Amino acid sequence: MWFKHLHLYRLHDAPELSSDALASALQEHAAKPLGNADARRLGWTAPAGRMGGGQLVHEIQSHRLLSALRQERLLPASVVKEEVDELVADIEASESRKVTRKEKTAFKEQVTENLLPRAFVRSQKIDLWWDTKGQMIGINASSRTRAEDILDLLRETLGSLKVTPLSSQTLPIRAMTTWLGDVASRPADLQLGDQVELKAKGDDGVLRARQVDLDSDEIQQLLESGRQASKLAVSLEGRLSFMLHDDLALKSLRFGDALIEEADHADDGDDALARLETDFILMAQALSTDIPRLIEWLGGETQREPAAQ
Fold it and tell me: Which backbone phi and psi does 132 adopt, to 5 degrees?
C-alpha cells in the first residue's frame, strides 16, 4: 500500500477526534453505488477493502489512514456529438430549417441523460495519510485537483477543515536549480537522481531529460542559459526517492530497500490486514521523518494563514 505520489498540506487547529468519532463521521459520507443519473460520486471506503471488515479508519501511533472512492461514468464526448449530429440532421431534413444553437444545447443534455445509465463506470481509490501529531495531511493522488477533491470531502465530513498547502521559505524551483548547478550547495544527505525538467524563462518551452548525468556539461550549459529546474529527481540517503515538483508535490515515490525488507520480515502471520498496517506505519514514520528534513533544506516552512472554511 506504499504511496506513489504525495500532495502535502498543513493542518491548522485540527479538530480533536477519536478514531471512533472519525469513523462515525466518515460512515455518513461513505461511498455508494452510482445511480443511473449520477455522472460521478466521491465517498469514503475501507482502506483494506473487504479484508478489513469495512473499517474506515486505521490509526497506528498517531498516524491515520483513510481512503476515498471516486466513481465516474465514462461517456466520450465523441459519442454524444455523434448522437446529437444525427438528431440535428434528421430535424433539419424533415423540417427544412436550421437547428438553433439553443436547441443543440438542449439536445446534448437530453442525449447525455439518455446515454449516462449505459456508460461504463471507472473507480479510483485515493488514500490519505493524516499525521495527527505532526498536524500534516498527505494525499496519494496524481494531481493537485484530485487531492483538493479529497480535502473537500474531508471538510464536508468534519464540518470544517483549516488546511493550507505545505510551502517553504525558499521556492522549490530556486532550491532545485541551485542544487543542480552547485554541488557544494547540496545537503549532505541529498543525492540527485537521473531525471530533470528544465523550464525556460521565455517562450522556449520545457526540456525533459531522463537517464542522464545531472552534473554533465550539457545540463550545466542549459542552466547557464537561464533555464530553471521545475522538477528534479532526488534521493534522501537511499531511504526515499522521488521527483520533487515546483509546487512541493512528491511524485514517483520509491521507498528504500531496507524499509521494504523490514516490512517483508515483519511478523504478520500472512495476515493481509496486518501487512497493510505494517506497511502503512513504516511508510508514515519514514515520511514524518524525512519531509521535515526536506522542508528544512528549503529554508523552513512558510507560515500561512488558512482561509475561513
Answer: -70, -25
